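Rather than argue in generalities, we reproduce a single protein record, letters for residues, whole numbers for local backbone shapes, just as it appears below:
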Amino acid sequence: MLNAPVCDTCCCEEQEEVTYSGQEKRILGISNDDFAANRPRIYKIIQTFDGMEPALDIERALYFTRSMRETEGQPLNLRWAKALYNIASNITIYIDDFQLLAGRLGCKGRYGILYPEIEGDFYETFLEKLGEREGGTAYISPENMKIIKEEIGPYWKGKTYHENFNAAVPKELHDILFLDDAGTTPRYLVNETASWRSSLQWVHDYGKVIQRGFMDIRREAQERLDALDPNSPTDYHEKRPFLEAVIIVSDAIMLWARRHAEKAEEMAAVEQDPKRKAELLLIAQNCRQVPAYPAKTFHQAVQSQYFVQMFSRLEQRTGTTISNGRMDQYLYPLYKQDKENGTLTDTQALELLECVWCGMAQFIEMYISAQGTSFNQGYAHWEAVTIGGLTPEGEDATNELSYLFLKSKREFPLHYPDLAARVHTRSPERFLADIAETIKFGTGYPKLFNDEEIIPIMTAKGAPLNQAYDYAASGCTETRMPNLDTYTSGGLYINMPAELELVLHNGRMKKYGDMCLGVETGDPRNLKTWDEFWNAFLVQQTNYLRVTLDIQYITNKMREKFFAVPMSSSLHDLCMKYCLDLHKEHIPGGYESGLADFIGYGTLIDSLAAIKKTVYEDKSLTMDQLIQALDADFEGFEDVQELLKSCPCYGNNDPYADSIGHAVERHTMEFFEKYGKELGIYVDTRYVPVTAHVPFGRVVSASANGRKAWTPLSDGTSASHGADMHGPTCVLLSNDASKNRDKINRASRMLNLKFSPKVVEGKQGTRRLVDFIRSFIDLKLWHVQFNIINRKTLVAAQKDPKKYRSLIVRVAGYSAYFVDLTQDLQDDLIARTEHSGM
């Protein structure tokens, strides 16, 4: 969204006295940035789709469905490979004007594709509402809607994972998960996520394709197939279909690339502009080389990567879009080669990478179900590009490409790609300064991953050190080791403040009336001591932890019957070694770390701290007075609300509050340690809400930290809105103090921070931000990300969305256009503490 509005006095009063981020300057027209002049090709591409409402393309769903209808009764991985071959053979081939790369998946402009194997039973209920829903609309033509209703939808009736999962869940668990019998409307207490994505986030071994090509992967599978024991039932029933599927899917992606080569040649034959003709012929040449054979040039390496990335989206919907892995590592050898032989400049390399970003920006991950939509507002995307970190040998991995990615992120005007930087104690000062300069621009990039925290946890769970060193960011704030990770099942979200409300209402919630949705722990007025109240809370929490593992058990047992990924499996060393699809429940030697996400951590801590302080220690409130105030949503009880807000809060390096967070987390980890092993995996405690803290807040009435009813909960391990009053370093220290370092069944603690642009202004501001990042590294926290923006800008954007159409904000583990978010989420971003010092 490149057309910058001219600044006027309504939002820019006292302009000289306000410090703006680079992004704000661009939007307000007070920047010298001229992207159109500096990147003419990329600017032209962006102009062809920027700001368009996404359209749903049905070809993937149609050809997938037709193939699956014809192959019923065959092994699932073989059926999936044949379906992908059918898609590759028939899907329309597009090569965009001005593009230097091929590989789009649907119609011109911004588009999404359908996955009926996941969402087919949602079509009748939700598809026709796509144009009016909050948090991201989409268009579907009447012709395509007719095909969905008459051909695609009917075939999948009764066959989707969701329908079968819904039928398998016992009623007592079902009532906690869903409002309706069909399981289409979540209750937002404990939420399963496996029914709107076929996998958790994922990272491929792109270097394998760049270095070997699919002809070599096919050759390996064929040799293994020829060597199978004809008398072995295991070889016949398990290994044979797996290897046949790898062969078919290798043929499929190579066919898809050849069809792009033919399309480019057809376009070149009629092209009048000699420069564009040469570009199209080069595209054709590259598509005949990769991904079938090893890449010979940097351009071919980028094309090979892009083909794999996009084809994997045809293969399945991961929860957060396929990530791009460590691009500055696997692309570096051919970048270095071409730079040294004089066939590539940094300007050309940047243009090729930004052609990838443009292709990504046109593909929209479109969730159909209400749950998927509410958790992923603003066309959420997480195709993480990882830079920095350590090499497999343990040396700093920063190189020239790392800096080129940062340069692109500062200058590219859209919120693509999702850039992630790995940092550690030996990260070069120049790298951290460049990261700081990029963060200061204000679009929320890059998000930071801390090697000093992540690598030790991976090795403690059994990962070889060299593979732990080589991890890549994946999804919001997750990580993957491409040839070692094997766990793909979506986890569950747990509403922590709801657990506390269940204590205050004897197992019930104001939102849901007299229906018991927890454990009847009695009238809270009869809980005479803090220990009694705390134990009642632990009873409620334990119950929801039990529900979580029960649902995860069902999920893990069912999923391999409904999903297969032959291409992804062909790129995984362990899958190839054992001839097992990546969706198998267990793969020998695999790193199996599952998760449960806890929503509203800060809200819960502050609420418990306020109850402990006011009711049980200071006795400034009775339990009855507290409940009356909460039931009234503080109307007429404003003095009680202020008293509650004045209590110790998480995010201020206050041991009173932080120790409660530590105890809450410890209880979850001890429960998962004891019972999670029955699932055969590590069940990690994690705090990654995406945007779930908004719908989860809509079912929680007023809470004891002074929060009003039905408003958003705190996000990730960030402090409650406005509660962090002593600066961002104290937020880091609270995050550290509340963490159980002696437990290894833990994962990401997503941390959002918002700074005023003034505090990071100039060289001194860069220095302060680098020092802050060093503190983050030294404290060994998992993740941190930043919004550098003035509150006034967010308020102005809410009032005048057209003027601020291009304003990008960091939401959760991703950035999005502010105006694409619901008002609830916009208000949540505005309410986050804007730190004016460090």
